[in-house]
Amino acid sequence: MKTIIEPFRIKVVEPIRMTTEAERDGLLRAAHFNTFLLRADDVLIDLLTDSGTGAMSAEQWAGVMRGDESYAGASSFFRFQASLRDITGFEHILPTHQGRASERILFQIMAGPGKVVPANAHFDTTRANCEATGARAVNVPIPEAADPRSRHPFKGNIDIPRLEAVIQEAGPANVPMVIVTVTNNTGGGQPVSLENIRAVRALCDRYKIPLVLDACRFAENAWFIKQREPGMSVRSVRSIVREMFDLADGATISAKKDGMVNIGGVLLLRDAGLVQRAGELLILTEGYITYGGLAGRDLEAMAQGFQEVVQEDYLAYRVRTAEYMAERLLKAGVQIIEPAGGHAIYIDAAHFCPHIPPAHFPGQAVVAGLYRTGGIRACEIGSVMFGGTLPDGTPRPAPAMELVRLAFPRRVYTQSHFDYAAESIAELFAKRATLRGIKIIEAPQALRHFTAKFAEM
Fold it and tell me: Which one of 119, 247, 289, 389 has the minimum C-beta count within 10 Å?
């Protein structure tokens, strides 16, 4: 098969400031070994997140120029609304400034003290917004999700028997929703099969519980369904996307991912009563219901971005990028979550640093090492992000894996950038025995990975 090329041409470029390893060591220490606290100008290859970091298309920038900035009823809102209805089939569509705002509103109107919210895996802001209402977030992934070497094609799936056990233990009245995250970011960017979503829907119907999609990367998930699920190869990504949303009672979307924009979010709901309550909270905290904390130009960019993300040439390139990086790292002996996900590669930090125990945060040690060695900024997804204590003061259960996520901004880096990143990771792996454990010297109670300060042990 021929090389899959980037399905775009580059029109505008942004310079990268080159740094030395000695410079980066000093910058890392000044940032207290937390790459979130680095200045972006000091990063060579920024793989911290794929959220809002992508490049917009010429058509999106054209939309920016025609944005209607009217406070209420702007024409840009109706173009945004029509685009989302076309993709998802939902009638009620509320814009928000980003995904976590959609999550906050959703949990505030549906969760609360004593409630239990099961999911295949809550990501950081999802869990935090759930727990902020007094509810308890419970993850019930399939067993294969915890095995980095398992080649199960849909490691993002929910474990249906475990889900039913959680519902029965909590009592259906205390389960306000079941969340399916597509793709499963916490578990390695792994997809969820259409068969699994259908099974969750059937279980939710049996217990009269709403099904909600965390649909930040819905198009990537649909591409994996098309590629991996029996009988799906003949279907279009658009038709698979529509069925995914048709199975749900609601959805939250960070448009900064598969919306292909730098800011924006969406809350989708079917129940008219919930829509009214959500709209009241939206006006209270975000803005009027036809702008949701965004400018008209942002709504225009989202309207176009949601159409572009389901283009199959783009998705083939997007997923092939992750596969290419996976092949290079596995060849170098670096264990990752297999198979490759759509938006990121996840390094198995426990395998990378067997001499560093979870209590000394091997993932954060690898994150620090990657920046020192190659100027690459990555994100720990392990005992830093998901450790600590619950709101009631009890210790959190240890995460199943210690991971480092390399998230790929959309339409930003070329193959040579990824080659450089792979070479830098292989170089660090060769000298991994020199990596030292990390300790926390200062951290907030919630979402500590964003602002915590660390020191090498």
Answer: 389
